[in-house]
């Protein structure tokens, strides 16, 4: 089901997403909130691409804060996989045909063209315009490959961003690689869920991902809280002047709102 963005072309619309599977099914001290995780994993909804679009994987994180103040951290890797359902591909082409027909109708309506003038104008410039519209704003099931967004997410009690990022990237490579990994994928998922413990305060932990070992550190009781987010990215995203201004506002205890697309 598409969202309320029908003025956009079908490949630029967003569609309703859902959780396909989660493991383990239930944890008493940390119940799984399916609606919240679904919304935070895909805040803009499900999206489609073709071979002409950028499909590089992207990683983002989120925090779920409960009523008692406890926090749960989520780390999400979003990627695109090829749509194998012919029914979905056919539906996308139908959406494009409807969209282009509506676009062309609105062009004619705005120019107040009659049937006679329409017939004459189609032979001239409008036919070229329509051809361009259909060529650059279309999806051809016989020519294009359709891809859909998908997420894999790790939910943790502490913000081990770098460790989770490395594990998700390795898991993604194992899923998309032509050569299968040394062990079944279920083995690596079972290992990180049930066999890799939290490192004790003030200690480091080394565990094995799919292809390479991964190290995570936990600060001690007398150390600053864990902040595993790279400071360089903050400078790249905000810029030096904005970051100084934000830091000044923090020191002055001002209210701060960060807005982003």
Automatic annotation (TrEMBL):
Signal peptide: none annotated. Keywords: Guanine-nucleotide releasing factor. The keyword 4Fe-4S does not apply. The keyword Zinc-finger does not apply. Residues 1-261 form the UDENN domain. One of its GO terms (molecular function) is small GTPase binding. PROSITE patterns: DENN (PS50211). Coiled coil: none annotated. It comes from the Eukaryota. Pfam families: DENN (PF02141), uDENN (PF03456). PANTHER family: DENN DOMAIN-CONTAINING PROTEIN 5B, PINSTRIPE, ISOFORM A. This is DEN5B protein. It comes from Todus mexicanus (Puerto Rican tody). The lineage of its organism: Eukaryota, Metazoa, Chordata, Craniata, Vertebrata. The gene is Dennd5b.
């Amino acid at each position: 089901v598409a969202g309320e963005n029908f003025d956009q072309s079908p490949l630029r619309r967003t569609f309703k997403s859902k959780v396909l599977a989660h493991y383990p099914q239930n944890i008493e001290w940390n119940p799984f909130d399916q609606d919240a995780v679904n919304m935070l994993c895909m805040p803009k909804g499900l999206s489609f691409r073709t071979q002409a679009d950028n499909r590089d994987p992207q990683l983002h994180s989120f925090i779920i804060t409960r009523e008692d103040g406890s926090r749960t951290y989520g780390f999400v890797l979003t990627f695109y996989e090829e749509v194998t359902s012919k029914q979905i591909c056919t539906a996308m082409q139908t959406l494009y045909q409807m969209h282009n027909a509506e676009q062309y109708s609105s062009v004619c309506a705005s120019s107040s063209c009659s049937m006679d003038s329409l017939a004459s104008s189609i032979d001239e410039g409008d036919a070229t315009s329509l051809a361009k519209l259909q060529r650059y704003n279309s999806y051809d099931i016989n020519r294009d490959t359709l891809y859909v967004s998908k997420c894999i997410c790790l939910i943790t009690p502490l913000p081990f961003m770098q460790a989770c990022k490395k594990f998700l990237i390795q898991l993604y490579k194992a899923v998309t690689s032509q050569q299968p990994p040394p062990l079944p994928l279920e083995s690596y998922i079972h290992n990180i869920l049930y066999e890799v413990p939290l490192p004790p305060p003030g200690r480091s932990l080394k565990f094995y991902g799919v292809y390479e070992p991964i190290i995570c550190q936990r600060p001690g009781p007398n150390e600053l809280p864990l902040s595993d987010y790279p400071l360089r990215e903050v400078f790249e995203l905000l810029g030096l002047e904005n970051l100084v201004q934000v830091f000044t506002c923090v020191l002055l205890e001002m209210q701060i709102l960060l807005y982003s697309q």
